[in-house]
Write a structure and sequence with these properties.
Helix content: over 70%
Number of helices: 9
Bound molecules: zinc ion
Number of domains: 2
Number of strands: 0
Largest sheet: none
Strand content: under 5%
């Protein structure tokens, strides 16, 4: 099992490296399949030795090999986070199709979290991949019937669409929650939304206090993405514990 988890971790690191490409290129409308990686400061082409996930950054001391410009810790952080989440899904669901589907969902949510935070934008392609994983999960996981998934796809996205008519919600959030609902079913979709709203509110007030004014809109998608990952990993346990308290 340990060996299996190490392999999953290393594979997750590599996927994380690709997520960095998506986070950089998708909001800028750049081609994701072509063109080689380059240093954002000196535009020098990066070679495989510069691109080993996590380790290149550590080995080069967080600097570009060619121009010595500082490279944001966000890059290795995304790789590490994805590696850990892939391990988390493997530990939660074992060596199953379910684990792989949820790992891909988690990777998409990492992209959503960062693009929404940096650009206030949720790429449609990520919502499409998440929705496709919903179909994979429908086939692979019989414990959650189609009806629960359809209610999940609608229960948050429809109220959000009504809010959007009032100008209080972005279209990206609506599509994201419809896609996530298909994966999670209505219970965990509601969990995701409440978690995201509470976390978003907390962060909003913390930033408000320290930075005087945030000066921009709150990227709700970032918090929904964090909520979605937590829903997959801990949602069922939390709901069981919470309703156990009530009974
Ligand atoms: Zn450079």
């Amino acid at each position: 099992m340990t060996f299996f988890l190490i392999v999953v971790f290393l594979f997750g690191l590599c996927i994380g490296s690709f997520l960095n490409v998506l986070i950089y290129r998708l909001p800028r409308g750049l081609d994701i399949a072509h063109g080689f990686s380059m240093c954002p400061t000196c535009q020098h082409r990066l070679y495989p030795l510069d691109l080993v996930p996590l380790f290149s950054w550590l080995f080069l001391g967080g600097k570009c090999r060619y121009c010595k410009a500082k490279i944001s810790f966000i890059y290795p952080f995304v790789e590490l986070l994805n590696g850990l989440l892939w391990v988390g899904m493997a530990m939660r669901f074992g060596l199953t199709v379910q684990a792989l589907a949820y790992a891909i969902v988690a990777s998409c949510l990492i992209v959503v979290a960062f693009t929404d935070w940096q650009h206030m934008e949720i790429p449609d392609s990520m919502s499409v991949v998440i929705a496709l994983m919903g179909l994979v999960l429908l086939a692979a996981d019989g414990s959650l019937p189609l009806s629960a998934r359809i209610i999940g796809a609608l229960c948050v996205s429809v109220p959000m669409a009504l809010l959007a008519l009032a100008g209080a919600m972005g279209g990206g959030d609506i599509k994201l929650m419809a896609a996530l609902g298909l994966c999670l079913g209505w219970k965990l979709t509601l969990f995701t939304t409440f978690f995201g709203a509470v976390l978003g509110t907390l962060v909003f007030f913390l930033l408000f206090k320290t930075k005087a004014k945030l000066g921009r809109m709150i990227p709700f998608g970032t918090f929904l993405a964090i909520g979605g990952v937590c829903a997959v990993l801990f949602g069922d346990a939390f709901i069981g514990w919470y309703f156990g308290l009530l009974v």
